[in-house]
Amino acid sequence: MGLRHLARRGASPATRTLAGLPGGIVTRRRGRGSEPEDVRLWAEGDDRRHIDRNATARTGQLHVRTHHDERDRAVVLLADFRPSMLFGTRRTLRANAAAEALALLGWRIVADGGRVGLAVASAAGEPTVLRPAGGERAMAAVTGALALAHAAALEAAPGAADPPLEPLLGIAASLLPSGGHLVIGSALDDPGPDFERLLGLVAERVSVRLILVSDAFERARRPGFFPFALSDGRRGSLRADGSGGQALDARLADYAARGIAGLRLDVEAGPEAYAPLMERLDAVL
User: Fold this and answer.
1) What is the distance, to the nearest Å, from the Cα of residue 43 to the centroid of all Cα atoms in its chain?
2) Strands 115-121 and 128-134
3) At what angle do helices 271-283 and 94-111 cross, to 10 degrees?
4) Cα-flanking dihedrals φ and ψ of residue 259, to 5°?
5) What is the pTM for the complete model shown?
6) What stretch of H or E contains 136?
7) Angle at 3 between CA 110 and CA 264, to 5 degrees
8) Where does residue 261 rank: exposed (0-12), middle (13-18), buried (19+ CB within 10 A)?
9) Going residue by residue through the chain (285 aa), what tens digit of pLDDT does each one get?
10) SS (H, E, C) 67-119
């Protein structure tokens, strides 16, 4: 809830009615839109493809149909709170960072009149699912559900294996109309054997964006063996090859080549650094 005001920082009616690609320059949306707005007489320079046949036949004069951009956005935020996300070496856990970024994005969307839903993956029983709804009350429900789901995930059995993300991915996609938006906040550790195929099918019907969460240890660790201890008392060692940062960037590039744009979210950066990233992501949803 505290991130609500941070999400509004820098947002104005001018920026919300403009859209463009990620970058330093915000441009107006191009194209005629998809929603019919009005029928008027033909004027010099109008595109013949926009001629309204019914009005033209009825009046005997050329008429064209105008359109406006459809601004009703339905967005489902998929938060990964599985055991592998309950890990962190700087500032907070990866699950917390994912929730912060998704909350920032959600507050921006409802402020622009969009609808926000939620799907949370965890090892604590049934997944949390909220259908897309509009207004600040809907976003307050999303933040409350995130907090409850995170608390339940922390109380789940320690050392539990990550359940696959595939079932929740299908549920989240079913909440959206065709042309809706699905935003996944996860490190995508062990998503399941059929996850990549299902993600490709979902991306054919809705827009999929990825927030790939990364802990500093993953990116900057030196080659070698590192000891660890779990909350249930078990101990072990982890072998690192020092290629974490390159692997993350390569993974994002691979998803981008398949039409699934994404960005890297560094856990140690914090919400102040996430806000401009979510502003850019919001501009292309």
Assistant:
1) 42
2) antiparallel
3) 50
4) 85, 15
5) 0.75
6) helix 136-155
7) 90
8) middle
9) 889 888 875 444 434 444 444 444 444 444 455 555 678 888 887 878 888 888 899 999 999 887 655 556 899 999 999 999 998 888 999 999 999 999 999 999 999 889 999 999 999 888 999 999 999 999 999 999 999 999 999 988 666 789 999 999 999 999 999 889 999 999 999 999 999 999 999 999 999 999 999 998 887 766 777 787 766 677 877 666 655 667 888 889 999 988 899 999 999 999 999 999 999 999 888
10) EECCCCCEEEEEEECCHHHCCCCCCCCHHHHHHHHHHHHHHHHHHCCCEEEEE
User: Which residue type sits at 24?
Assistant: G
Q: How far apart are CA 40 and CA 27, in angstroms?
A: 28
Single-letter code of the amino acid located at 124: A
Residues 25, 160: Cα–Cα separation, whole Å = 46
Structure-token pair, residue 107: 């507050």
